[in-house]
């Protein structure tokens, strides 16, 4: 996932000054000449250490010195780049306990976003398309901002097709005639980004990803022209994508406008102790560590960050911006360090028509026939 980030510089701290606040009167005291006529009174004589103990010194507050770059400027911290949310960023509402699917809850959650085509789901969240063996199961994972999952979004055959594309296009940097071009997981440019992304991405030809595009169109009810280049991503052991937003920097909105939706599909399973989950920093969930609902009356799982574990064929959907194009900072997320190989297919939906740049001459129109055939095979073209 792309990760535009905007940093806020923090000016260097001012010099620290220390001072002594107490003023001590030394009349006839420490350091003065002794009088010969004065009798010695040992009992009332104060020692040097006792006098010093009366002096109260206000110590200057300790301040940590910021790390500087080679130009002597403070290096932006994570909080500078990804500031904590404030009340101005809006409420965060987790889903309530229970496994029940409620269409009205989903519709309410999506009222300010491009939404999901709920006409292709029944009252239990099951899709109504004709491929009965691979019916989708829609789940609301977070109410506001909305985060959803779709189980069985890819069939086993779909998964194997895209995994084989990764293998067949390994090392293809655009010089060959493959279906995808391999890049070291770029993001929309931001010189101040602190995000770490160590995965590998393949930018794919639209015509080679008709299955993903058709199912995305059926699910989100959007035009092919709004779709960014479909991508395949592989994280090897130890690789990650740290905290980031999926929004696009304002300077680069001329091509398609803002990203309104993120759709990613996991191509393999990863157990909970193998990392690789998609974690939302500021969203909470009533899920426990095994990603199952907690039992009623149990506190287990309370306060957990919303974490979606990779499950082969399952899609994850969330919205980096509202339908008016305003970015939603509440959707900041990361891909955990993977302790085994993790693979995903991903797609972003824009406000307006988007023009692809990789691979060369990559056009959404080239996928139109394949998408139409896939929609007819699914049996959902009549409810779009």
Overview of this structure, please?
- This protein is α+β, with helices and mostly antiparallel strands and 384 residues long.
- The model is unreliable at 1-39 and 293-303 (pLDDT under 50).
- The strands form 2 sheets. Strands 1-2-3-11-8-13-6-5-4 form a 9-stranded antiparallel beta sheet, covered by helices on one side.
- The chain is globular.
- Strand 2 and strand 3 (147-151) form a beta hairpin.
- The chain has helices spanning 48-53, 78-81, 103-109, 156-168, 210-220, 368-378; strands spanning 93-94, 137-144, 147-151, 180-183, 200-204, 231-235, 241-244, 259-266, 278-285, 304-308, 315-318, 333-335, 342-350.
- The protein contains 6 helices and 13 strands.
- 36% of the residues are buried.
- The two termini are 27 Å apart.
- The longest helix is centred in the middle third of the chain and has 13 residues, at 156-168.
Query: How many separate helices?
Result: 6
The structural class is alpha+beta
Tell me the strand percentage band: 15-25%
Q: Mind telling me the C-alpha Rg?
A: 30 Å
C-alpha termini separation: 27 Å
The residue fraction in helices comes out at 10-25%
Largest sheet: 9 strands, antiparallel
Shape: globular
Round the mean pLDDT to the nearest integer and report it.
81
Count the strands?
13
Low-confidence runs: 1-39, 293-303
* Sheet with most strands: strand arrangement: 1-2-3-11-8-13-6-5-4
Could you state the order of secondary-structure elements as H and E?
HHEHEEHEEHEEEEEEEEH
Summarize this entry quickly:
This protein has 384 residues and is an alpha+beta fold. It has 6 helices and 13 strands.
């Amino acid at each position: 996932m792309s990760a535009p980030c905007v940093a806020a510089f923090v000016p260097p701290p001012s010099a620290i000054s220390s001072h002594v606040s107490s003023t001590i009167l030394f009349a006839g005291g420490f350091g003065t000449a002794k009088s010969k006529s004065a009798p010695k009174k040992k009992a009332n004589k104060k020692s040097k250490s006792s006098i010093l103990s009366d002096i109260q010194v206000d110590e200057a507050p300790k301040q940590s010195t910021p790390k500087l770059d080679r130009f002597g400027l403070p290096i932006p911290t994570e909080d500078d780049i990804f500031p904590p949310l404030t009340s101005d960023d809006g409420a965060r509402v987790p889903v309530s306990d229970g496994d029940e699917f409620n269409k009205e809850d989903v519709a309410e959650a999506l009222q300010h976003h491009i939404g999901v085509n709920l006409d292709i789901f029944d009252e239990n969240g099951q899709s109504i398309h004709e491929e009965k063996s691979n019916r989708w199961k829609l789940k609301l994972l977070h109410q506001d901002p909305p985060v959803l999952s779709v189980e069985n979004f890819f069939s086993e055959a779909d998964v194997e097709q895209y995994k084989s594309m990764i293998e067949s296009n390994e090392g293809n940097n655009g010089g060959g005639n493959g279906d995808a071009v391999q890049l070291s997981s770029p993001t929309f440019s931001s010189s101040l980004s602190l995000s770490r992304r160590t995965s590998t991405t393949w930018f794919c030809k639209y015509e080679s990803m008709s299955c993903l595009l058709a199912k995305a169109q059926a699910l989100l009810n959007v035009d092919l022209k709004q779709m960014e280049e479909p991508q395949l991503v592989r994280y090897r052991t130890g690789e990650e994508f740290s905290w980031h937003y999926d929004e696009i920097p304002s300077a680069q909105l001329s091509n398609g406008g803002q990203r309104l939706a993120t759709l990613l599909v996991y191509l393999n399973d990863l157990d909970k102790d193998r990392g690789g989950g998609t974690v939302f920093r500021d969203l909470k969930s009533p899920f426990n560590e095994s990603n199952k609902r907690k039992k009623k009356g149990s506190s287990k799982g309370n306060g957990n960050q919303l974490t979606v574990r990779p499950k082969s064929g399952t899609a994850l959907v969330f919205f980096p911006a509202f339908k008016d194009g305003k970015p939603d900072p509440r959707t900041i997320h990361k891909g955990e360090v993977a302790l085994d190989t993790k693979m995903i297919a991903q797609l972003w939906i824009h406000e307006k028509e988007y023009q692809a740049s990789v691979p060369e001459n990559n056009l959404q129109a080239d996928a139109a026939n394949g998408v139409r055939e896939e929609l007819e095979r699914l049996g959902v073209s009549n409810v779009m």
